[in-house]
Amino acid sequence: MTKQQKQKELDNLAAKFMAQDPLPELRSGARQLVPGDGNPDADIVFIGEAPGAKEDEQGVPFVGAAGKFLAEMLDGIGLKREDVFITNIVKYRPPNNRDPKPEEIQASMSYLMAQLKVIEPKLVITLGRHSMNVFFPELVISQAHGKPVRRSGHVFLPLFHPAAALYNGGLRQTLIDDFALIPTLLHKI
Ligand code: URA
């Protein structure tokens, strides 16, 4: 598929998800769907947890403080937001930024997996333990971060969440160090 075709497929998936409306309660508490942003033909897909207030306002994932830090780290390895694809497990902002409920995650998975099928990235990067545990319930982020894992046809790299690392100096440096592994890892896949 060309990049344009992939974008069209992603748009179709968003339209289908909205038509099916599997999370009416979550949807009615949010301003809009936050489907994902960036290159539909990207080598790397980043997956966060759920949109926050800024993301809900703009309809774009990772545009708040955590997103700014993510963009800085991308810049550090010579990439821009437009080069990668960024999304979340759950596509509507949970009220008061509470954690998504297991059934909300469950109801969001087929959309997320369909996005991955269209984009066909080389590398899927989970941000934070919640996003990691959706794919790898058995892993613990303090041990699993920065170590690639192969599963169900994808290579995953679990990383700490930029929001958690923002105000924690040690975690911040760990996340920056893990980020530095990405170019070599991509090259090897
Ligand atoms: N945190 C997330 O997990 N996702 C966003 O889109 C923004 C902040």
Structure commentary:
This protein is α/β, with parallel strands linked by helices and 189 residues long. The chain is globular. The site of uracil (URA) has 12 residues, from loops.
State the end-to-end distance.
20 Å
CATH homology-level superfamily:
Uracil-DNA glycosylase-like domain
> How many individual domains?
1
User: Based on CA inertia axes, which overall geometry fits?
Assistant: globular
Q: What's the CATH class, please? A: Alpha Beta
Bound ligands: uracil
- CATH structural architecture: 3-Layer(aba) Sandwich
- Write down the secondary-structure element order: HHEEHHEHEHHEEHHH
Largest sheet entry: 6 strands, mixed
- Our estimate of the beta-strand percent is 5-15%
Mean residue pLDDT: 97
Q: In percent, how helical is the residue content?
A: 40-55%
Low-pLDDT runs: none
Rg is 15 Å
Beta strand count? 6
Derived from helix and strand composition plus strand pairing, the structural class reads alpha/beta
Major β-sheet strand ordering: 1-3-2-4-6-5
CATH topology: Uracil-DNA Glycosylase, subunit E
Please count the helical segments.
10
In short:
50% of the residues lie in helices and 13% in strands.
List the keywords:
alpha/beta, Uracil-DNA Glycosylase, subunit E, 189 residues, globular, 10 helices, binds uracil, 6-stranded mixed sheet
Q: What's the SSE blueprint?
A:
Elements: H1 3-20, H2 24-29, E1 37-38, E2 44-48, H3 53-58, H4 65-76, E3 85-88, H5 102-119, E4 123-127, H6 129-135, H7 141-144, E5 149-151, E6 154-159, H8 162-166, H9 169-179, H10 182-188
Parallel strand pairs: 2-3, 2-4, 4-6
Antiparallel strand pairs: 1-3, 5-6
Helix pairs in contact: 1-5
The chain binds uracil.
